[in-house]
Design brief:
179 residues, 0% strand, mainly alpha, 65% helix, 11 helices
């Protein structure tokens, strides 16, 4: 329902404030799955404030321009920071695929190795900074809960639930569904 969507949007804003871009991306992607996007009446019931906030979070997480906005936010975030790993995986793939391992004459392409090193070193910078160990200290109960959690519903099951919530062609919001 709209209240829960609003809560997840607020969590996304808190994650952005904490420079946790990886979890922010997870929330924005979840809110933009097919099962969630088809809930037009539920989305319409979200407060204007949360709708605007969701648009801002989506802009940060947009893949447009090779994650240009996300890259800029990560670069300006003070450590500690949790960057969106997908950006760096994409960069590593481009470095690996776009540069030969060996140069003419069989020499190792040290330029390619330097590019990989620079990228990994940049990610490691985000792991430092004052307060890192306190900010990201393990929470045993949470760690155990996440380790042994139920994987939840499949994409198809979520889509079927969205159809129960708002059937195709409906003209108003269906009654709440207990899951």
């Amino acid at each position: 329902n709209a209240e829960y969507m609003g809560r997840f949007i607020a969590i996304g804003k808190a994650l952005l404030t904490l420079s946790n871009f990886n979890s922010l991306m997870a929330i924005v992607c979840a809110l933009n799955t097919a099962a969630m996007l088809r809930l037009k009446f539920t989305r319409a019931a979200i407060s204007k404030k949360h709708q605007k906030l969701l648009e801002e979070l989506e802009a940060v997480c947009s893949a447009e321009g090779s994650y240009k906005v996300m890259r800029a936010r990560i670069a300006s975030a003070p450590p500690p920071c949790i960057p969106y790993v997908g950006v760096y995986m994409q960069d590593l793939t481009f470095i690996a695929d776009g540069n030969p391992d060996k140069l003419e004459g069989g020499l190792i392409n040290l330029g390619k190795r330097r590019l990989v090193y620079d990228l990994i070193a940049r990610v490691q910078l985000y792991q430092g900074g004052a307060g890192y160990s306190e900010m990201f200290a393990p929470i045993p109960l949470l760690s155990r809960s996440l380790t042994f959690c139920n994987p939840g519903l499949s994409t198809d099951e979520l889509y079927q639930l969205s159809l129960l919530r708002e059937p195709r062609g409906c003209t108003k919001l269906a009654n709440s569904i207990a899951v």
